[in-house]
Specification:
It holds the Pfam family Myb_DNA-binding. Residues 9-61, 62-112 form the Myb-like domain. One of its GO terms (molecular function) is DNA binding. Residues 218-253 are annotated as: Disordered. Residues 221-253 have a biased composition (Polar residues). This protein has 341 residues and is an all-alpha fold. Among the domains are: 11-63, Homeodomain-like (Arc Repressor Mutant, subunit A), CATH 1.10.10; 67-117, Arc Repressor Mutant, subunit A (Orthogonal Bundle), CATH 1.10.10. Helices cover 52% and strands 0% of the residues. The protein has 16 helices and no strands. It binds a DNA duplex (21 and 21 nucleotides) through helix 3, helix 6 and helix 9.
Length: 341
DNA sequence: AATGGTAGCAACCGCGCACTA
DNA sequence: TTAGTGCGCGGTTGCTACCAT
């Protein structure tokens, strides 16, 4: 059977999204919810294909997305998870609730690959930080087979471990908004760029504003130098809470504040001992108690479960040195990847 | 100041899977 | 069982900003 194109390509706009398009898309999703992407261009009048709309929403407009500034812990998690899962960015992203697969993929390709390569060449076989060479105890085929059966359940178990309540306000929100001040100019020429394009910064603002919508009933738009620059008065329900980053904005289940999220990754040696390798049985046990991926393949954050299990599993580098099998698996994959550089 | 190279990132493309009729 | 459809994923491209010369 032939596969029809996702759109007829005729009259379909490509390239960067404009703020106006973002607003239209956000407004539509706010009203109808994500999904049925095929209908989005038709119903909104956007000259974009459905895939483009979905991608734009998933990667940039969806609430709760953190962009840029990967922390050391996130970096480590990505490295470990990439070693374990390979280039399964969506799976890796599911462990980093605020990050998109695209973001992680880009970060891997642009930063971490180089970093690891540098590390690999610099150390030249010395064992350090879990990234060095070693003698694999099992073949890649073996661990891949094992992963095939284990990854899915382990993924769900880990997501369960990530589940927590979000009660802290985001401290970084306001400063980011300030940093973005003026970036939403439609002329895209009013402010100097910092580290990203003016457009990227502006979509971040859209996301943050949307967080406010999702969290609260629509309120009259508040006059503000930042929001008015965005022409958000075209959209009903602009919420001032997104500017203030008050805890009221945390009702959204998808959103995890910076503070809360960072706390997840604080290494805590006092946490209970767990096996560094999630066995199938353990994972299945978790799986039976949880309900994941409610929306857009991201875990929910309803049931507070200590993060220590995942944390320990991912970060206990001493276990790497001890040569546990599960971490050997990571090492194998990591070495395989490094060899590709 | 101008130019060329490079890095970073947003977005696109094609494929595969799941679901339905 | 097969065809049609929608969606998600991973790889890749191309644009833009930055940096070195």
């Amino acid at each position: 059977m032939g596969r029809p194109p996702c759109c007829d390509k005729v009259g379909v706009k490509k390239g960067p999204w404009t703020p106006e398009e973002d607003i239209i898309l956000v407004s539509y999703i706010q009203e109808h919810g994500p999904g049925n992407w095929r209908a989005v261009p038709t119903n909104t009048g956007l000259l974009r294909c459905s895939k483009s709309c979905r991608l734009r929403w998933t990667n940039y407009l969806r609430p709760g997305i953190k962009r840029g500034n990967f922390t050391d812990h996130e970096e480590k998690m990505i490295i470990h998870l990439q070693a374990l899962l390979g280039n399964r960015w969506a799976a890796i992203a599911s462990y980093l609730p605020q990050r998109t697969d695209n973001d992680i993929k880009n970060y891997w390709n642009t930063h971490l690959k180089k970093k690891l390569k540098k590390l690999q060449t610099g150390l030249d076989g010395q064992n350090r930080d879990g990234f060095s060479s070693f003698q694999p105890s099992i073949t890649k085929g073996q661990w891949e087979r094992r992963l095939q059966t284990d990854i899915h359940t382990a993924k769900k178990a880990l997501c369960d471990a990530l589940s927590l309540d979000d009660t802290k306000p985001s401290n970084s929100c306001l400063s980011e908004l300030k940093a973005s001040n003026g970036y939403y100019s439609l002329t895209r020429s009013s402010q100097p760029s910092q580290s990203s394009t003016t457009y990227a910064s502006s979509t971040e603002n859209i996301s943050r504003l949307l967080e406010g919508w999702m969290a609260n009933a629509p309120k009259p738009a508040q006059t503000n130098s930042e929001t008015t620059q965005f022409s958000f008065n075209n959209v009903t329900g602009t919420d001032s809470s997104s500017e203030e980053c008050t805890p009221t904005a945390t009702n959204n289940n998808e959103m995890v504040s910076q503070g809360a999220f960072d706390s997840l990754f604080a290494l805590d040696s006092s946490t209970p001992d767990v096996s560094p390798s999630l066995s199938l049985d353990e994972s299945t046990q978790f799986q039976s108690e949880t309900n994941f991926f409610q929306d857009e393949s991201k875990p929910s954050f309803e049931t507070p479960v200590p993060f220590s299990m995942l944390e320990k599993w991912l970060f206990d580098e001493s276990l790497i040195a001890q040569g546990h099998e599960a971490l050997n698996i990571q090492q194998i994959s990591l070495d395989d990847n490094v060899n590709l550089f």
